[in-house]
Amino acid sequence: MAVSDAHTRDMRPWALLSPALTAITLLLAIPTCFVIVYSFWLRTAAGDEQVGFYLDNWIEVLSDPFYRDILLYTLKIGLITTVCCALMGYPAAYFIAFSKMRNKAFLLLLLMLPFWISYIIRTMSWINILGVSGAVNYVLQSLGIVAEPIQMLYNEATVILGLIHFLLPFMVLNIYVSLEGIDPNLNAAARSLGSTPFQAFREVTLPLSLPGLAAGSLLCFVLGSGTYITPIVLGGPGDGMFANLIYDAIITQLNWPLGSALSIVLLIVLGSVVLLYNRYLSLGQISKGFG
Amino acid sequence: MADPQHDPQHAVELRNVVKRFGAFTAVHAMDLNVERGSFVTFVGPSGCGKTTTLRMIAGLEDATDGDIRIKGQRVNDVPIHKRNLGIVFQNYALFPHKTIYENVAFGLKYRAVDRETARKKVREALQLVQLPHLEERVPKQLSGGQQQRIALARAIVIEPDVLLLDEPLSALDANLREEMRVELKRIQRELGISTIFVTHDQSEALAMSDKVVVMSEGWIEQEGTPEQVYNQPASEFVANFLGISNIFSGQVQAVSGGIARLGLDDGPELLGHPRDGRAARQGERVRLAVRAEKVFLSESAPSDDPAAVVLDGKVTAVDYQGQAARYFVEAGPLTLQAINPIDRRPFHEGQPVKLRIRAQDVVLLDADAHQSAAAKAAAE
Lengths: 291, 380
What we know:
By secondary structure, chain A is mainly α. Chain A is built from 13 helices and 2 strands.
């Protein structure tokens, strides 16, 4: 009797987890295994796929500096985006968390608002703003400041701009959650002991919000480094990121084996970043960002 | 108008201090002195304004009106970090990312204290709260009682002008709370530090304080020594808030030799002493209070005492409490509560008893401060 009780108790978490585990297994784990298998196949000159165990794709991906350079460039863009998001997101999160406004929920709602619109459409909206016949050029020309429209789009800066636009809410939410969790008495205690408002921020609020900042940064970095839509929509020919290589290989060249190998490389690189983070900072903080 | 006299001998002075939140007035025209080195307690139910007053003194809230002085100096516009106050919060508010040593040493960073002196002061403070060996731990590794002591050490190490304690014991369990109560009082005595303590717990207020300030709805109902507020409650609110009191309405029928003869409405007569500074006029309608433990029950008529009234009654319910019992007694039209120590065995339900009420224990009450103020405001 007691044994079977203990038994059902042990099974309960698994019962609750099973829908998610099933979904992850069917939709993520198994397809990933397929991708790994694909990466060892070969695409012949005739355009067929040759089933087998060939290392050709891997040798090409790991030895050609072209791929390495684009990977480094991707990580650089991801890093710049993350830093920009952190610098822009922290003050916003701080304002929402410590605002005396009664409608904090409204501010959070505003923050979530962009998620209601497709990421692709949000990205494309920049064309209407910065494009040759976009709003900014229209204003500049109407005011007679410039005679010819300025080409502002399709460069590295607009890619970063688009990524910030996409990722900033993730950063703000994560920082907000960790700021919101700080006991306001801690700041009061620091102030009563002699800290100026800035010293209290540096000594108490900032260190206690670092987990949120770290979690937000990880999300921004991983999502930013893995995207291909922003460079396609807002980047120029030289602004492709690593995911664009995968897109080209699979969609344009129909070279699934090569695309698979590239995918695995990106997965391993970004996965290592996540594992590294997990080693030093608890990832539990990230999930709070959505709560 | 001339600036009212302020005495630098007072650790804290409140003059006509008002706090409004929008249309709601949390603290009404409060006047109060906290003598240097004394232990003053604000006590009252939640929402009475005690914590708001403490937070205004601390600088965590701005006073809407009035003057707050610390050691004679007006501090209304002095930011909190320049007030030199030690605050202990209800939830301790230790810095979770710092060690115990860093927590206690925190305030010394902002004072001209060299490293060696700081180390010595932190050691002394930890010694004083009897936790000298936890320096390298972090708050999470400490029990609630230990965190409380560390919070106290952190507040006193900076040698504050005033120590402010915001319900510091309420998060502790009952046994620990009584222990900390004694401990806190010992430390306060030892340092001679002016202390303001906020609590909703009447026994804490009575046990620890030099002065008790009973508050209700933003008004001071009464301030005085624990004996004064307990034995001579100024108003019905105080009589009911501290301990258990029997409250009656009646009329002063005669006053002679400092003793008033009081006729209770449709009931017997009681004898009463007007409280110091409160005269009784013949014919005046009054409310009066008799503490439950001042209603003495006995089986037979007690010895004749000219300054006492003896009533016949019957026990209707018994609330047994170990060394004492609380009785509900019917005496004619009155129902009284009586708390008496138990001699051998308690009175039982239905037992006829004599109730003796001494004149010195019958207290004539004033109207509640918050009610008379409201009535005055309505009349204006």
